[in-house]
Amino acid sequence: MSLRNPNSEKIIDFVVNQGNGIKGLVDSGIETVPELYILPVEERLDASRVVAGESIPVIDVSNWDNPKLTESICEAASKWGFFQIINHGIPLQVFDSVKEAGHRFFGLPNEERNKYWVGNSPTDTVTLKTSFVPQAEAVLEWKDYLSFRFVPGDQESHGLWPSVCKNQVVEYMERAEPVIRKLLEVLLKGLKVKEIDKAREYTLMASPIVNFIYYPRCPKPDLTAGVRPHSDISTLTVLLQDNNGGLYVRATDDDGSWIHVPPIDGALVINIGDILQIMSNDRYKSIEHRVVANGSNNRVSVPIFVNPGPDAVFGPLPEVLESGEQPLYKEVKFSDYFKFFFSKKHDGKKTMDFARI
């Protein structure tokens, strides 16, 4: 990484080392985007590359037993890697409550938020961070995030979570879990897996992480990135957007274009993660996506990263390879894949090279 200028070093100290985050920097009254957050021109989202009038599929999941639903979900996972679901059974009130809880946390005084900063938090199941991996990034992302490692029934950890949001996070995760399980059952059925037993459950969904991602209003959003292009290392990601929008998905025609994912009231955005692309031997696609900053409003989104257990070893499923198909990936331990992802900046889909044969 090139040496930063003295002003950028001061900002790193304030934002990262002192634990004020980009929220603290914005609250200090900045009126311009600091150099530390300005993307090279070629890395910014070019409006001419956004495909007008196209978006990802929206799928009604009110009847999980409908064979056409299985077909629609598996087709979306293969073609797009992203889709939205509606009529999933989670009440709107649960969505509103968890989004409001996110805003409440980031509305706390800095000294209260700072109690959960990485290294300060009373438990490693909740940590507040900024950007992605600041020590590995020449340009930082315009976001802070509060990350919850969810262990069902872990009352001891939950009791140490911030009081302004812990109940809402637990309720949201408990409501989402049956939907996540149904989605995985459908997607695995499409890969000839008859049932998800305990061993498979550990490999698919044992260690979910729930994030409150906070994107404060940005004075010049076109200069920076809320999140740079990347694919997720999860099995699945389940995203609750607010009504500000800002999520863009790479079009699958390889011409460098992007598709906006408009917020739909009551919908969840589902995307295939690297783990499921690897397990499916590329039948399902883990697609790059990015988030643009917002010039008008503070934005909160709430993703659930459905992750394997840390000791899980994954590779192409035997059911996928049973007809003699050659594996495209080796078997990898999830904790090793996770560490590799978090050792570098967001860099598209390069993490998958870690598992590729």
Q: What does this protein structure show overall?
A:
The protein is of the alpha+beta class. Helices cover 29% and strands 17% of the residues. The chain is built from eleven helices and 14 strands. It has helices spanning 6-17, 21-27, 67-79, 92-106, 110-113, 155-158, 166-189, 198-205, 274-279, 318-321, 334-341, and strands spanning 58-60, 82-86, 126-130, 144-149, 209-215, 227-230, 236-240, 247-250, 258-260, 268-272, 289-291, 299-306, 313-314, 332-333. A hairpin with a 7-residue loop joins strand 8 and strand 9 (258-260). Helix 3 (67-79) packs across helix 7. 39% of the residues are buried.
Write the layout of secondary structure elements.
Blueprint: H1 6-17, H2 21-27, E1 58-60, H3 67-79, E2 82-86, H4 92-106, H5 110-113, E3 126-130, E4 144-149, H6 155-158, H7 166-189, H8 198-205, E5 209-215, E6 227-230, E7 236-240, E8 247-250, E9 258-260, E10 268-272, H9 274-279, E11 289-291, E12 299-306, E13 313-314, H10 318-321, E14 332-333, H11 334-341
Parallel strand pairs: 1-2
Antiparallel strand pairs: 2-10, 3-4, 4-5, 5-12, 6-11, 7-10, 7-12, 8-9, 8-11, 13-14
In short:
With 357 residues, this protein is an alpha+beta fold. It has helices spanning 6-17, 21-27, 67-79, 92-106, 110-113, 155-158, 166-189, 198-205, 274-279, 318-321, 334-341; strands at 58-60, 82-86, 126-130, 144-149, 209-215, 227-230, 236-240, 247-250, 258-260, 268-272, 289-291, 299-306, 313-314, 332-333. Helices cover 29% and strands 17% of the residues.
